[in-house]
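Board notes (copied after class):
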Amino acid sequence: MLITLPPDYKPSEDEAFMNPRQLAYFRQKLLRWRQDLLREAGETLSSMGQGGIVEADLTDRASVETDRALELRTRDRARKLVSKIDQALERVDNGTYGYCEETGEPIGLRRLEARPIATLSIEAQERHERMERVHRDD
């Protein structure tokens, strides 16, 4: 079932949580984000494929190599983010999107608006981070 949303639609607390309109909204948001990341990755590949480093000056050459290394790290993060977006889209499809993986409680619209790939409620995320700090200090 394809739902057409008005261009100014924003999910509201007044609606039933993760109703078909909200799911369609977050699906579109995730798909746009994914498309932007893939476009940027394509631009990076295109610019890197335009030949080797031609700077004669060692300092310039080092600067270009550093920039490329940084760009590759950024692309690697983007690749991992695309994977998380794909997982979120699967949750939209199977009806689990928007619900905490630990508690099953709604994650909340504000959190999903800020981080559409969130899998934990704020409370569960804070517990998780506290446990990480405790175990990291061991």
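Comment from the instructor: The mean pLDDT is 88. The helical segments are 20-48, 58-94, 109-114, 122-136.
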